[in-house]
Amino acid sequence: MYQILLVDDEPYVVDDLFISIPWNELQVEQVHRAYSGYEALEILRQHPVDIVVTDINMPEMSGLQLIGHTRREWKHIKTVLLTGYSEFEYAKQAISQQASAYLLKPIGNGPLMEVLEQLLLEIRKEWETRASYQRTLQTFREHLPLLRDRLLNGLLQGRKPGNRQLVEQLDQFSLPFTLERPAALLVIRLEDYFQQHDVNSMQLFEYAIVNIAHELFQERFAMWSCKDVHDYLVLVLQPLTEDCRDNLPSLHSQMIQTAYQLQKNVSTVIGGGISVIATGWGSFPDQVYSLYQTAISTIRAHIGHETGVFLKAEDTAEKRITTLQSLYEPPTLFHLLEASNWDSIESKVRNIHAELIETDGHSPEHIEEAKLYMETAFYYFAHKNNTMLGDITGSTMPGGGSFHTPDKLLDYALRMLALLKEHFDSERKDMRSVLIQKVHEYIDLNLHYVSLNAIADEVKLHPVYLSKIYKAETGKRLSDHISSAKMEKAAYLLTHSALKIYEISAALGYSNAHYFIKLFKEYSHMTPQEFRDRAN
């Protein structure tokens, strides 16, 4: 289904085309109307228009200028230029460069439909070409390194998709990794020699290092690489043999020896030093996050400013204080509160509670950490919405002290969320009621010329967002309310004034009295004159 925009500074031209063309036969889903070039640009920014039909001679912005804007910003849009006979020679020069087609005014429905049918056929063919398998496959291949990088970074940060989804992604991205088979990590830090170069050179160095690693490991290990949030290169290595569990110590020794060789080859071939941290084995993908955290902790604790270091993370392992993964992994509680996504917020809180219960090594200090983090998020959300948290919760903060169990923390967090949701839902409803009232007042005062864009400017909202709010609050489209308000005003003027019908039409912003009469008959099932006669 397609969308078309009709543009002319003479409203009756636009309105007549809107009424008289059988748009359904052309598979046109929506027809937009604009009465100036600037109004047309606003509609183009808000809607996925396929074809623009515009008059050439308009004040402020001509049809040629409008087409020029359209070709620069929305190259896919087809354009039809409407021109008078006296303007034809002038228009013909620009038509060959910009417009898809032209028609001489006055316009007949038949010629316009023929032009539109041809342009819609061209659009369909263009989309079929774009959607072709080869082009899609080529685009996928071009983005494959980025897709692999993002997926691995997600695993390193603890964001693991479901097993079925992960298996599908591994297959799509041509990654020969097997779930639950052991894997180990190499975390590589590029040293000073590399840091002196610009971004483009760094990308080439990183590409070269990954290629050297692939050459060294490919006989025994599947390898998957990415650049992490610390600008380290991370390699995930998994044995290729299915029965690897019986031979893990030997495979680990081979991996360490090859990693030493990688460090040496990078220094020899490229001329720069790298530090390498090698982890032990862990189940893929469930333990990738913990292996990565161990490696990063090792870098912080044992490398510092030293260069060219090689360490096995397991050799430096001490009793490790675990971190609350679910507390800090995205989306954070701060982001979820900003979005007012209350179901996801509760799910986040319950995930934190579950981790505190199920994971060994979490002390009362971890419970206090979670409590302080949540409390900070609650303060932030309240203050960002111009409200004191104490005004929402009352003079006494729920659960103001420390907690000794995860269950107490969960109870506190859920009570706080209930108070926040109740307060801001009520406030939002009041604000929207005031907004709808302002919209109605503006419409009543400006019935002679009112549009969605004008109303949106008045209430300082984007037109699309305003339309959604209005529909959600009233159950009606804003355009329907405007039409209804105009018809109600027309009915009042017909029975309480001596204004002629064409004067009432003009007073309500209709430049074409015939169009007004048609709309009024749809509204009251009578013509304006019949309505006036019956009232008298």
Account of the 3D structure:
With 536 residues, the protein is an alpha/beta fold. The chain contains 23 helices and eleven strands. It has helices at 11-20, 37-46, 63-73, 88-95, 109-130, 133-156, 163-172, 192-195, 199-217, 248-269, 288-303, 325-328, 333-338, 342-358, 364-384, 389-393, 406-445, 452-459, 463-474, 478-496, 501-507, 513-524, 528-535; strands at residues 2-7, 28-34, 51-55, 78-83, 101-104, 182-190, 221-227, 233-239, 274-278, 282-283, 310-312. Strands 6, 7, 8, 9, 10 and 11 form a six-stranded mixed beta sheet that branches. A five-stranded parallel beta sheet has the order 2-1-3-4-5, with helices on both faces. Helix 3 (63-73) links the parallel strand 3 and strand 4 (78-83). The longest helix is centred in the last third of the chain and has 40 residues, at 406-445. 24% of the residues are buried. Mean pLDDT is 86; it is low at 315-319.
Number of helices: 23
CA gyration radius, whole angstroms? 33 Å
Count the strands? 11
Overall 3D shape = elongated
| Cα separation of the termini | 47 Å
Low-confidence stretches: 315-319
The residue fraction in helices comes out at 55-70%
DSSP strand (E) fraction?
5-15%
Class from secondary-structure proportions: alpha/beta
Protein name: Response regulator
Keywords: Cytoplasm, DNA-binding, Phosphoprotein, Transcription, Transcription regulation, Two-component regulatory system
Pfam family, one: HTH_18
Subcellular location: Cytoplasm
